[in-house]
Recover the amino acids of this structure.
RNA sequence: GCGCCCGUAGCUCAGUUGGAUAGAGUGUUGGUUUCCGAAACCAAAGGUCGCAGGUUCGAAUCCUGCCGGGCGCACCA
């Protein structure tokens, strides 16, 4: 089912078409002047340009065509040619009843279930996960949930950095220490990796050994491979702990190494097709296009030493995904700084015939995380902050807040821990997701674990309050009704509840979860005002009471749905 | 040097793709609880939308030029 704005758009669109004007001009949206009207259509002003007529005359003609539609309670022309529209309470009420009765709450499903692969998380082997992985993980996970709800078969792939030079560096250092082949722990790995990176940077001979080790590993050397396999296992365990705590899900635990076998055939094919050429000792594929404003460096497939670059593995990963998943879209949730790289890879993929033109490859990039000083985020000690430290800080603060509240007294330890966990994750996720994906953003630990104002916990609080209210109502034998009765104090919440399908569509189309954050917050806020203004359980008019309970229930369902799409879980109480 | 992104209230951010009086949170000030959960609600103050031009009925939004910040430009990932 469509949203109210869409239904009204159909009506006004037809009115424009009847005047031989483009249907698109009939676009109706929620008014940005709620004091004047509920909905507005601006098409008459755009039409006046093409028809060379007075916009108010056009608006007048459209308005006359709309008169026969009984959905409207008020149709007015304002200013230069705005068409202001109000709908009848009957119409609003019946629309609400429909969406309340719909298990998808009015959000339409795509016609055909197609596959989307989402690439996010991207943790590296042997390195602890830090706050930099947070954005990719939670934005990616949210986008996966959004695509899934839209009706796609959405596949999330963690795509670990488990290949290439860093692996060679670790192996060469282990060898130098004489401990290659012995089991290592995560703590040891975390010590070895930076030590190895430092040694290679300072010592050219060590770097040369690292290069050799990289090539040998990639050529399938048994000893190296066994050691490598072992530290993959150890690292993955550590990653899973973090992802589980965050509630970030992956369908595939693939890494760069998984496509190694596909590289040689892919490269050969690109060679025989004439796309891959030699340049300065390396094998490259040129990705320049006509109309390029900037220099576009070629994508390097093979380095002059025969080694593989990450662009090559990315390309081979596309080969694999096309074969195994046959997706219509592949979405990369990776730092915006990689945009040139993805431009190169995508162009190479299309040019080399690895993906057909009608398959969408998108880099859904996100901004750099800065500290409150505007510079790339560092802890006070100057290091990176570990993800697990951030999570435990959030949980501690949630526990402290819970201890303050009287309500926590009667809860057992297990429930209290569960609530603290959910509150902390809601705080962290919402603080991040509410920012526009593309812009750099300031990572402020206090803001991220704050529980007041526009925060995740505020949303949980409203949801929990509704739950509690509905429980109480049930205890008194009151049930949410099937019909809506709209008084002045109910109407703005009711109108807001009809916007969900449009908001969802925007978030899906632009890969922007922050639109859902914005909506969830408006909903919670609108509900809170409504809740303060009307006392529901003591309402004596039964029809009004059950209508209001129905509004509560629908609000509740929408908050659950939207927070679910953001990857935020709601406790029973808090 | 070339290119990409950003610049909106003291601070952190929205702004539905060109619409009416630019909105939230936070912080500041004041108010609200014999009543469904005060992690709340109501209200006030706070703006040359970086600057200057241009396009038009109409610009935070589109175009041009500056200023300021961030990032990226072939053998790292």
């Amino acid at each position: 089912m469509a949203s109210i704005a869409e239904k009204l758009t159909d009506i006004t669109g037809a009115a424009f078409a009847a005047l031989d004007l483009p249907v698109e001009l009939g676009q109706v949206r929620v008014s940005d002047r709620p004091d004047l009207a509920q909905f507005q259509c601006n098409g008459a002003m755009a039409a006046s340009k093409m028809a060379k007529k007075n916009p108010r005359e056009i608006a007048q003609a459209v308005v006359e065509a709309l008169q026969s539609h009984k959905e409207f309670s008020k149709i007015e022309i304002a200013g230069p040619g705005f068409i202001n529209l109000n709908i009848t309470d009957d119409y609003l009420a019946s629309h609400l009843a429909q969406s309340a009765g719909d298990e998808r709450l009015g959000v339409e499903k795509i016609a055909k279930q197609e596959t989307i692969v989402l690439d996010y998380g991207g943790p590296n082997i042997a390195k602890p996960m830090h706050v930099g992985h947070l954005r990719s993980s939670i934005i990616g996970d949210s986008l996966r949930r959004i695509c899934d709800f839209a009706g796609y078969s959405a596949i999330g792939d963690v795509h670990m950095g488990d290949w290439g030079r860093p692996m060679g560096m670790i192996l060469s250092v282990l060898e130098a220490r004489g401990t290659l082949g012995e089991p290592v722990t995560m703590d040891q790995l975390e010590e070895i990796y930076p030590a190895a990176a430092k040694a290679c940077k300072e010592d050219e001979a060590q770097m040369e050994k690292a290069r050799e080790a990289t090539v040998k590993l990639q050529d399938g050397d048994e000893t190296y491979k066994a050691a490598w396999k072992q530290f993959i296992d150890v690292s993955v365990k550590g990653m899973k702990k973090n992802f589980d705590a965050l509630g970030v899900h992956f369908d595939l635990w693939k890494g760069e190494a998984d496509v190694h076998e596909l590289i040689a055939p892919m490269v050969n094919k690109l060679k025989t097709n004439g796309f891959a050429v030699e340049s300065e000792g390396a094998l490259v594929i040129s990705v320049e296009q006509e109309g390029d404003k900037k220099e576009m460096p070629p994508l390097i497939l093979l380095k002059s030493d025969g080694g593989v670059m990450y662009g090559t593995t990315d390309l081979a990963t596309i080969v694999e995904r096309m074969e195994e998943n046959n997706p219509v879209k592949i979405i990369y949730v990776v730092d915006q700084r990689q945009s040139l790289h993805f431009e190169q890879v995508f162009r190479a993929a299309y040019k080399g015939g690895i993906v057909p033109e009608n398959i969408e490859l998108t880099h859904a990039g996100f901004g750099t995380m800065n500290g409150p000083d505007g510079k790339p985020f560092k802890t006070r000690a100057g290091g990176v902050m570990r993800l697990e430290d951030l999570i435990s800080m959030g949980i501690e603060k949630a526990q402290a807040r819970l201890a303050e509240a009287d309500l926590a007294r009667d809860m057992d330890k297990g429930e209290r821990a569960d609530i603290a966990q959910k509150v902390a994750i809601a705080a962290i996720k919402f603080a991040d997701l509410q920012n526009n994906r593309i812009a750099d953003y300031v990572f402020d630990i206090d803001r991220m674990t704050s529980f007041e104002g526009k925060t995740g916990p505020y949303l949980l609080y409203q949801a929990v309050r509704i739950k509690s209210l509905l429980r109480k109502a049930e205890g008194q034998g009151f049930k949410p009704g099937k019909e809506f009765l709209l008084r002045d104090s109910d109407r703005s919440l009711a109108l807001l509840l009809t916007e969900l399908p449009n908001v969802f569509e925007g978030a899906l189309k632009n890969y922007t979860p922050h639109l859902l954050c914005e909506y969830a917050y408006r909903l919670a806020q609108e509900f809170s005002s409504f809740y303060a203004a009307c006392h529901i359980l003591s309402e004596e008019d039964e029809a009004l009471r059950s209508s209001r309970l129905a509004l509560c229930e629908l609000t509740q369902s929408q908050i659950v749905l939207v927070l679910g799409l953001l990857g935020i879980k709601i406790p029973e109480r808090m």
